[in-house]
Write a sequence for this structure.
């Protein structure tokens, strides 16, 4: 070890050690998601028929109908609003507020989008699983919003929700020490779980869909955190032309959100708030710009 330090220099050696520790923490954080995916894979192998057959499992039908019925006791507007938080365009706009003081965290969210989108699109196309409304009589369960029938596995909204949770936790509080660190972790996990559960409540997904979506989303969020922690690509948000471009893009983003039609007041409120967040942060970036001191080192953030 001494010979290696002498050859590459103590500064580089320390950086390599910190990066190694950060990578180890990301692997540890990824373990639960990998375990969930392994269990789902074993279930698919056990019952046979591939991922498409999961929509035909009687156990799924029973669990879905029970769960959907239990959640129907809550107002439909609540579930409509909660499920919108699994829309990547909405949740990224809401979290744009982080750009004012913690641009690295928001960058982790943004960097998780490519992996999450790739997983969602490719897995849905590969599985080609039918949604509950295509298998069961829609009159036998509660449906909120449009009736969907195809591309059930995995849940894209669950991917988005857990990608956000993983990215925030891995970049902001990966080494929790104080009570509010644990409160933030718990809040992120509860919020992501509520979004995932809402997909059963609105009648759009089977329980296995949201479990797989949560696991895939968690891994996508960790990939975004790794990109934000171990590279400085996101610092362009903090200065010059990059800051102005980001500000203009957020203003346009917010305006487009405001133009989206929605039927319920709760959805209008959520999308309206998301648009307001994006526009206000966009104006802030054009006028002032985020604090650059918020960068987290690999040792601190992962």
């Amino acid at each position: 070890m001494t010979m290696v330090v002498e050859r590459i220099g103590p500064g580089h050696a320390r950086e390599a050690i910190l990066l190694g520790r950060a990578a180890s923490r990301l692997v540890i954080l990824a373990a639960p998601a990998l375990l969930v995916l392994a269990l789902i894979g074993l279930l698919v192998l056990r019952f046979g028929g591939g991922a498409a057959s999961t929509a035909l499992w009687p156990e799924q039908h029973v669990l879905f109908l029970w769960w959907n019925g239990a959640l129907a006791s809550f107002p439909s507007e609540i579930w409509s609003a909660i499920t919108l938080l699994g829309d990547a365009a909405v949740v990224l706009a809401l979290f744009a507020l982080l750009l004012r003081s913690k641009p690295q965290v928001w960058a982790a969210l943004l960097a998780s989008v490519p992996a999450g989108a790739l997983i969602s699109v490719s897995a849905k196309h590969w599985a080609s699983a039918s949604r509950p409304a295509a298998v069961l009589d829609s009159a036998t369960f509660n449906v909120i919003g449009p009736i969907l029938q195809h591309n059930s596995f995995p849940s894209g909204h669950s991917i988005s929700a857990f990608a956000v949770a993983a990215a925030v936790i891995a970049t902001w509080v990966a080494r929790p020490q104080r009570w509010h660190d644990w409160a933030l972790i718990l809040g992120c996990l509860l919020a992501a779980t509520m979004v995932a559960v809402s997909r059963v409540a609105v009648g759009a997904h089977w329980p296995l869909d949201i479990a797989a979506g949560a696991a895939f989303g968690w891994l996508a969020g960790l990939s975004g955190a790794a990109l934000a922690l171990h590279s400085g690509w996101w610092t362009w948000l903090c200065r010059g032309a990059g800051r102005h471009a980001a500000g203009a893009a957020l203003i346009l983003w917010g305006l487009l959100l405001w133009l989206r039609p929605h039927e319920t007041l709760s959805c209008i409120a959520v999308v309206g708030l998301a648009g307001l967040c994006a526009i206000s942060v966009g104006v802030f970036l054009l006028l002032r710009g985020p604090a650059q001191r918020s960068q987290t080192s690999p040792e601190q953030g992962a």
